[in-house]
Amino acid sequence: MSETSGGTSSVAPPYLIFIRHGQTDWNAEGRMQGHKDIELNETGRTQARRNGKALKAHVEQAGLSLDDLHFTVSPMLRALETMRIVCAELERGDSAFTVDERLREITFGVWEGFTIPELTAQSPELVARRKADKWGFVPPEGESYKMLSGRIGAWLATVTRPTVVVSHGGVMRVVRGLLLGIPTDEVPKLDVPQDRFFVWAGSRLDWV
Question: Which helix (H) or strand (E) holds 206?
Fold first, then answer.
């Protein structure tokens, strides 16, 4: 599946491969992770290996050199473990990447560790406000998608060379939103698969 930008983004890098970290137990349970450091489960490690193998095949088919790609990752445990597994599949060193604090997941503040049904029982009015405006809503002591987009947009503007990034679901959403010019109210609802990744080249986004 391909997606094409409706316009030219001022922050669009020339070439970007974006991999979301593999599944964790909290993902499987529907718990808000945010800045909580949760490790991958076995499903997540299998997904990371799949993405590493698929990335190796993609690079070979595209006639690219791994030496031409910059690898960078969120400092969070689940992202770091995913990157190390991907690098192992590429036969790269398990520290052949940089860590960038700006790539952390959106933080849900005091809501982290809870599911939406649990939060609805505790704070139904706040959950209703979030449902009405997921882009602008700020959880208690947390971060909105609008705030995250500002953080990630600033990072994206610094990506000037072909880059492989491992980060998070919220980050994946806002990167796609920025690259493709997706309306902000749609960005928080975008699908964020863990068993495939996207490749951005110029003005086109493809899933692998």
Answer: strand 204-207
